[in-house]
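Escalated from tier 1: UD2 holo job.
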Amino acid sequence: IRDSTVLVTGGAGFIGSHLVGALAPHNEVRVLDNFSTGSREYLPPAPASASVSGSTSASASESPATSSETADSTTVHDNVTVIDGDIGDPMALQRAARGVDLIFHQAALVSVSRSVDAPRRSNETNLDASLLVLEQARQEDARVVVASSAAVYGHPDELPISETASTDPNSPYGIQKLALDQYTRRYAELYDLPTVSLRYFNAYGPRQQGPYSGVISTFLDQARADNPITIDGNGEQTRDFIHVSDIVRANLQAATTDAVGTAYNIGTGERTSIRDLAELVRDAVGSTAPIVHREPRPGDIRHSGADISKARRELEFEAQVSLESGIRSLVQET
Ligand code: UD2
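Tier 2 regenerated the structure:
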């Protein structure tokens, strides 16, 4: 997409920041992030002569600078304005969304286990505040692309999992994403808003960090430190791992598609066992770390893999990065 004014909620986070990087060259981008897990370092760097705060841009951007700069918003790049605030704060959200054509809603509390420990707290962000984002999109008459999750399916009743499989989430996180996913769909119908919901399978790539970061970054850290690679259970469980650059491409497709008002599985269509993954990562690093087995994770989903035919057909999206090359580039670039 080009010459649009775009809001990315969670734009300083793992997936959001990659999306901002792809959008910034050709669009005016707003980032709304509370920096709870995101980082300014993930945002595109300011050109050498640009100011880092205040209202002056060093050079004329493609689209006119319409953002009203205040004390808590900063220009980090000619085309990127950062609002340090919470999606649950209506004032911050309103300011960030003013005049936008398009919203990518990536902000969330992504930890499934935290949602189990504190369901109301995660519901506040993942559902209540997300509903504010949808309402803001309605206000601005903006298209909205929402980050949903394979977590909506819970233990799947079919493989590969199609969008019509039963949805029976087994965590508060999954319940929240399912409710958001359904709101997103119904906003298209009830308010004639172009909305798209993307059900991400297991995302991985640079900047996925922290205690809830996912098995690939955990294994990579372990392999690099020559620490034991910790497989939960027998390692025969499988996942559909999708590289963040493919997730970004799916979002860009969703930004222009006519096939709105619906949810798409965003995966590769390939399943990999955790045991194979451990070996892949160890080999890519050239590590001699031992592989050890722990107790299986309680409530762990056994197998997960996307049926990608709907995304291929209607969204014209297909993942391009194989797990092997995704892991290789992760090892080389980070
Ligand atoms: C993913 C998503 C989650 C939700 C869920 C839906 C991530 C990070 N999380 O959870 O947000 O959408 O899917 O079903 O993408 N494992 C090990 N050793 C480790 C860490 C993990 O064996 O050190 C195993 C773990 O037991 C599981 C698999 O690896 O079988 C994947 O774990 P994960 O936490 O990366 O992601 P998942 O599928 O639980």
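The first helix runs from residue 14 to 23.
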